[in-house]
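Exercise (ungraded).
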Amino acid sequence: MIVVLTGAPGAGKGTQADMLAKRLGFRKVSTGDALRRQVKLQTEIGKKADALMSAGRLVPDDVLLQVLMTEVGQDKNEKILLDGYPRNVNQAKTLKMAMDRVHPVKAAIHLDVQREELIGRLSGRRVCGKCGATFHVKANPPKNEGICDVCGGGLIRRSDDDPEKIAVRLDVYDRDTKPVLDFYRQADLYHVITGSGDLERVYKELAGVVKVVCQ
Ligand code: AMP
């Protein structure tokens, strides 16, 4: 089964998906992480995605379908959290058509955060270039500036986390991804949670919904 975590860039989908994976036995599938791996390896997919990702724009749907099929796999017994997909209505329809028999979508849970807060979160975000751990210069600083607490790697700012790209990504979200919320509302799969404030509070609410829908 699949639980879709949806919301704007910076809403905390990745962080919450990691927590759910660790505590409730889900597997997190992040299309953003998968694409970044392909860019690093300079595969055909990576080459197609690189410039678009740096510009904060969406990578074409056919490329994403390839990523999705590879990442999700065919194991019916797996509980999958999807972070970053679908990002438009066409992808939501594709997910249904391509995956429904093996992995039906049980819920689409929206982490709702105001634009001002999203900008603050994204502009202060730093990620480890080695292990991918995420920090924030104010809200969650590393013990030693610029150094990852987890593996000692160097912390960097994602190329799409500068102010101009953040604005593009939030506009793309409003235009292309917000209609996905209606798609799931109509399918009776939509849930919304306030994504601002304490991480554990958000987690508790989110886990409550996940446990009910996955019974
Ligand atoms: P994320 O890590 O989820 O913020 O994704 C980073 C970037 O990867 C996005 O800004 C897009 O350029 C690309 N990307 C990730 N998922 C998708 C998707 N489902 N459709 C199109 N582009 C995507």
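Further reading is listed at the end of the chapter. For now, observe: The chain is about 50% helix and 15% strand. The first strand starts at residue 2 and ends at 6.
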